[in-house]
Amino acid sequence: MAKIEHIDLGDFPLLLAPMEDVSDPPFRAVCKKQGCDMMYTEFISVEGLIRDADKSVQKLDIYDEERPIGVQIFGAEIDSMKRAAEIVEEARPEVLDINYGCPVKKVVCKLAGAGILKDIPLMVKLTEEIVKSTNLPVTVKTRLGWDHDSIRIVEVAERLQDVGVKAISIHGRTRQQMYKGEADWSYIAEVKNNPRMHIPVFGNGDIDTPQKAVEYKSRYGVDGLMIGRASIGYPWIFREIKHYVATGEMLEPPTLEERIAVAKEHLMRSVEWKGEKLGIVEMRRHYTNYFKNIPNIKPYRAKLVSSMDIDEILETIDSIGVEFAGYEFEPALPDTYEY
User: Fold this and answer.
1) Cβ neighbours for 326, distance < 8 A, ≥ 6 positions apart
2) For 115, which of 111, 183, 247, 265 could close a Cys bridge (C-beta 3.0–4.6 Å)?
3) Do 235 and 200 form a contact (C-beta atoms < 8 A)?
4) Using CA of residue 314, residue 319, residue 322, residue 328, what is the dihedral sign?
5) Which of 9, 2, 70, 65 has the alpha carbon at shortest distance from 40?
6) What residues in the chain have per-residue pLDDT under 50?
7) Using alpha carbons only, what angle is made at residue 315 by residues 326 and 24, rounded to the nearest 5 degrees?
8) Which domain does 41 fall in, by range?
9) Do 277 and 162 lie in a common domain?
10) Where does 175-283 show beta strands of DSSP type E?
């Protein structure tokens, strides 16, 4: 049973990873319906939050249907992080999560995200101050280390737990790897198997099929899985993994009709939340996987990723249903890809 302080997540929870321009309320809503146990917001700049920047503040939007949910923040200045934690608390999430894993240069160069992996004492001090400044359970998402020569994740996890962190999610790559190569879960297993660790340890990286989810559950003994890129345009990965964990059998893939219904729901929620222009543009990354493997789908997909007219997009989605009616999908999940 995995629990983040008082929050019961069940026997083997599946978490939606925080992904910039992906893990927004429209996408979280469809993932929740497909069995996701806990979700996180897109990461929020503490500097933007304390300056009341519209984009940062909007990311605090939380809806009851999404709970339990964590708000993720990133930054490197202790005072700013503490002030941001106070603002987050007012949004009433279940959890406050700190991003120590984002590898993007513009974040790292400020010693935020994965950049702080070059200064572990600051990382621990920053975490301790945030824990003291909020009533929310504090969790952390991080990577193995800055590069292969500086992997100290077992020590880091211990120290974060010692200053009050209630759960840790570990992406099995270093910052230097970005999203390339294969995630190394052996280090995640070392953290989980450390007899000093008593908080939940969630593994992240390369989980893109139910078979791999069960294999990693068994091999590495983590308390749950955090799924990111494999869920983009394919929220069904959560229900498929749950079914495979419970029965050992592959669930039938979603039908074309179901894909169309969810894609349209996702699109309309996106437009409603972000406005028509941004809602349409940020939805585009999902269409590839919503309609993956359909033969001769390219002309339709080209329309979906080029049109700025909501009625035209909805008509194109409906046309896919008519043109490919009765198409049967193979029971396989999409490959992960860079977003």
Assistant:
1) 256
2) 111
3) no
4) negative
5) 70
6) 333-339
7) 95
8) 3-247
9) no
10) 201-204, 224-227
* 150 and 265 inside one domain: no
Give the chain's domain count: 2
In a domain, 337, yes or no: no
| Coil, helix or strand at residue 248 | coil
Strands 7-8 and 3-4: antiparallel
- How many other β-carbons are positioned within 10 Å of the β-carbon of residue 70? 29
Asked if residue 335 is part of any domain, the answer here is no
- Strand segments (E) across the chain: 3-4, 7-8, 14-16, 38-40, 44-45, 69-74, 95-100, 138-143, 167-171, 201-204, 224-227
Q: Which residue has the tokens 């033969």?
A: 295
d(CA 101, CA 99): 6
Q: How far apart are CA 70 and CA 40, in angstroms?
A: 5
| pLDDT for res 332 | 55
Say which CATH number the domain at 82 has: 3.20.20.70
Count Cβ atoms below 10 Å from residue 155 Cβ, excluding itself: 13
pLDDT at 96: 98
Give the active site residue among 31, 36, 102, 109: 102
| CATH number, domain with residue 316 | 1.10.1200
DSSP string covering 85-126: HHHHHHT--SEEEEEE----HHHHTTT-GGGGGG-HHHHHHH
Query: Are 267 and 239 contained in the same domain?
Result: no
Does 333 fall in a domain?
no
Tokens of 223: 């308390």
Q: Tokens at residue 144, please? A: 């193995």
- The answer to whether residues 64 and 210 belong to one domain is yes
Structural tokens at position 198 = 């008593």
CB 320 within 8 A of CB 260: yes
31 catalytic? Reply is no
